[in-house]
Design a protein that fits this description.
By secondary structure, the protein is α+β, with helices and mostly antiparallel strands. The chain is 42% helix and 20% strand. The longest helix is centred in the last third of the chain and has 13 residues, at 165-177. It comes from Luteipulveratus flavus.
């Protein structure tokens, strides 16, 4: 098991980073929130979870061990794989996700692409007593970001997370229509995710 990685950020995309560790570039799948905090050339440490499949070894990275542990815990539910678990953490910050599960908030869970009402109910049933909500665990408000030039990039990332092209385009359009924003692609993606989570 690879529990963590430390190294210089070689590249940072919307949903992945490449860390240079001992001369080897390690591709790590992350949430947009984690990716937005990493800059090329910066030294970074990620808590990681290695998912082994018959045909692949995939690393998923997280800002801290608590987020990684939640990622692994939600996968204990039947039908929840690593991609869906990562999508859950992309839509809901860890504290909000814990609160939704422990509080039985099926509506919040169904805002994650790939989770229907029955799936959300199963997650609540199986994890309600295992996942404790953290007091004051509300989603943090993110500063607005302008993504006009990056509209296609952000829409593509949302489609990659499981939303339809129309849903992705509509969400980006609503964020851009809300008013003037800075030119940060990551901020636009976070705002679009919040829009889709409503």
């Amino acid at each position: 098991m690879i529990a963590s990685l430390r190294g210089a950020v070689a590249t940072a995309g919307l949903d992945h980073v490449v860390l240079e560790v001992g001369g080897v570039g390690m591709l790590v799948h992350v949430t947009p929130g984690t990716a937005s905090g990493l800059r090329r050339g910066q030294e970074a440490r990620l808590a990681t979870s290695l998912v082994v499949r018959e045909d692949s070894l995939t690393l998923f990275g997280f800002a801290d061990e608590a987020e990684r542990d939640l990622f692994e815990q939600v996968q204990t539910v039947s039908g929840v794989g690593p991609r869906l678990a990562l999508a859950m953490l992309a839509v809901h910050p860890p504290d909000s996700l814990r609160a939704a599960i422990s509080g039985g908030d099926v509506v919040a869970l169904t805002k994650v692409p790939g989770i229907g009402k029955k799936g959300a109910e199963r997650i609540v049933l199986e994890l309600r007593d295992k996942v404790g909500a953290i007091p004051g665990g509300a989603a943090t408000v993110v500063a607005a970001g302008n993504g006009s030039p990056a509209r296609g990039q952000v829409a593509e990332a949302l489609v990659g997370l499981g939303w339809s092209a129309k849903q992705a385009d509509d969400a980006v359009g609503k964020v851009l229509a809300a008013g003037p924003q800075s030119g940060d692609v990551s901020s636009l993606l976070r705002l679009a995710l919040r829009e889709l989570g409503r």
